Amino acid sequence: MKIALLTAGGDCPGLNAVIRGVVLKGDRIYDHEFVGVKDGFRGLVEDDIVPLPRQRVRGLSKVGGTILGTSRVSPLTNGGTARVKEVMDKHEIDALIAIGGEGTLTVARMFHDDGINVVGVPKTIDNDLSATDRTFGFDTAVSVATESIDRLRTTGEAHSRCMVVEVMGRHVGWIALHAGMASGAHVILIPEVPVSPEQLCEWVQHAHDRGRAPTVVVAEGFTFAGQAQVESDQRDSFGRPLLGGVGDQVTRLIEERTGIETRNTTLGHLQRGGVPSSYDRVLATRFGTAAVDAVSNKLWGTMVALQGIDIANVNLSDATSHLKTVPRDQWDEAAILFG
Ligand SMILES: Nc1ncnc2c1ncn2[C@@H]1O[C@H](COP(=O)(O)OP(=O)(O)OP(=O)(O)O)[C@@H](O)[C@H]1O
Ligand SMILES: O=P(O)(O)OC[C@H]1O[C@](O)(CO)[C@@H](O)[C@@H]1O
Ligand SMILES: [Mg+2]
């Protein structure tokens, strides 16, 4: 078989490990031929497709970013599935492996509905995809955020300041919850649980009164009870507002209401760059080898997923039907230690 691979949406540590896993197993076990699609769906509609021989994926499991490039270009407004089929036919491509988040996998599901042979691989640092217990990239993002919060704590303590740390996650609080718990934060604010300014300041004051430098981890999608999400004026190429800015809002509020000197750090894309953690390298490699098995078994319209410690195949529709949010009881477990 001739198989095309693409990576779409935001990049994520572990993308190259997936590509390596697919190509190495596909070459050794099935004798498949591989090509890479450049920059996500852009390459698929603009016919930017390159050979992907075994030698090209050597040593890739520890390399951040994606050797294929990525973008948020939509195939549907650039020729649609008719154009995609035309390009695939031209290159005699039998199947597509789409590595991406909920947007990419939604498009993959639409391709499948239109008769394109496609298998999905779930990536995102946000860990917000249903039907898989974990997405690769999440563990690395949590590790980077945890190390950063640990570092911010010592400077906060030296100056008796409150330190606010804004982390990514889009509309869910997985990164904030895990990095906050790992670093022993005094408050964790996530989109799933609206908290009032009064409650936040009570926790901060309590930690301060105990002689600690209060550490507040806030997910970029958090909103105070009854308030709108903080968005930047910038839009991504898909027209959606970029999140970010809530860390500054929380910082100003704490300083105004408590008088405690407070500083914000927004970690931003540091959480997505650099080498993947060993956990993500293993998960991404397993996803890659399972994806090439799924293609070889013609499990079209499915996605590889982690269920417990096993890799499974689930329908793309199950993976994209709703966001996997943080359950309230998991935040409650952490909140016992706030303040
Ligand atoms: N509902 C949709 N209908 C049509 N195209 C979509 C849809 N959602 C996403 N896309 C397209 O899919 C691609 C990837 O989507 P998106 O930018 O949301 O990234 P993602 O795969 O969800 O990863 P991330 O975790 O970075 O959000 C883009 O090219 C976008 O144009
Ligand atoms: O890279 P961009 O387009 O700024 O997008 C940032 C968004 O992508 C993610 O990093 C991954 O979905 C989110 O956490 C964040 O909101
Ligand atoms: Mg998305």
Automatic annotation (TrEMBL):
<protein>
    <recommendedName>
        <fullName>ATP-dependent 6-phosphofructokinase</fullName>
        <ecNumber>2.7.1.11</ecNumber>
    </recommendedName>
</protein>
<dbReference type="InterPro" id="IPR015912">
    <property type="entry name" value="Phosphofructokinase_CS"/>
</dbReference>
<keyword id="KW-0963">Cytoplasm</keyword>
<keyword id="KW-0460">Magnesium</keyword>
<dbReference type="InterPro" id="IPR012003">
    <property type="entry name" value="ATP_PFK_prok-type"/>
</dbReference>
<keyword id="KW-0547">Nucleotide-binding</keyword>
<keyword id="KW-0067">ATP-binding</keyword>
<feature type="binding site">
    <location>
        <position position="102"/>
    </location>
    <ligand>
        <name>Mg(2+)</name>
    </ligand>
</feature>
<dbReference type="InterPro" id="IPR035966">
    <property type="entry name" value="PKF_sf"/>
</dbReference>
<dbReference type="InterPro" id="IPR022953">
    <property type="entry name" value="ATP_PFK"/>
</dbReference>
<dbReference type="GO" id="GO:0016740">
    <property type="term" value="F:transferase activity"/>
</dbReference>
<comment type="similarity">
    <text>Belongs to the phosphofructokinase type A (PFKA) family. Mixed-substrate PFK group III subfamily.</text>
</comment>
<comment type="function">
    <text>Catalyzes the phosphorylation of D-fructose 6-phosphate to fructose 1,6-bisphosphate by ATP, the first committing step of glycolysis.</text>
</comment>
<feature type="binding site">
    <location>
        <position position="10"/>
    </location>
    <ligand>
        <name>ATP</name>
    </ligand>
</feature>
<feature type="binding site">
    <location>
        <position position="263"/>
    </location>
    <ligand>
        <name>substrate</name>
    </ligand>
</feature>
<keyword id="KW-0418">Kinase</keyword>
<keyword id="KW-0324">Glycolysis</keyword>
<feature type="binding site" description="in other chain">
    <location>
        <begin position="124"/>
        <end position="126"/>
    </location>
    <ligand>
        <name>substrate</name>
    </ligand>
</feature>
<keyword id="KW-0479">Metal-binding</keyword>
<keyword id="KW-0808">Transferase</keyword>
<feature type="binding site" description="in other chain">
    <location>
        <position position="220"/>
    </location>
    <ligand>
        <name>substrate</name>
    </ligand>
</feature>
<dbReference type="Pfam" id="PF00365">
    <property type="entry name" value="PFK"/>
</dbReference>
<feature type="active site" description="Proton acceptor">
    <location>
        <position position="126"/>
    </location>
</feature>
<feature type="binding site">
    <location>
        <begin position="101"/>
        <end position="104"/>
    </location>
    <ligand>
        <name>ATP</name>
    </ligand>
</feature>
<feature type="binding site">
    <location>
        <position position="161"/>
    </location>
    <ligand>
        <name>substrate</name>
    </ligand>
</feature>
<feature type="domain" description="Phosphofructokinase">
    <location>
        <begin position="2"/>
        <end position="295"/>
    </location>
</feature>
<dbReference type="InterPro" id="IPR012829">
    <property type="entry name" value="Phosphofructokinase_III"/>
</dbReference>
<comment type="subunit">
    <text>Homodimer or homotetramer.</text>
</comment>
<feature type="binding site">
    <location>
        <begin position="72"/>
        <end position="73"/>
    </location>
    <ligand>
        <name>ATP</name>
    </ligand>
</feature>
<feature type="binding site" description="in other chain">
    <location>
        <begin position="269"/>
        <end position="272"/>
    </location>
    <ligand>
        <name>substrate</name>
    </ligand>
</feature>
<feature type="binding site" description="in other chain">
    <location>
        <begin position="168"/>
        <end position="170"/>
    </location>
    <ligand>
        <name>substrate</name>
    </ligand>
</feature>
<dbReference type="InterPro" id="IPR000023">
    <property type="entry name" value="Phosphofructokinase_dom"/>
</dbReference>
<comment type="pathway">
    <text>Carbohydrate degradation; glycolysis; D-glyceraldehyde 3-phosphate and glycerone phosphate from D-glucose: step 3/4.</text>
</comment>
<feature type="site" description="Important for substrate specificity; cannot use PPi as phosphoryl donor">
    <location>
        <position position="103"/>
    </location>
</feature>
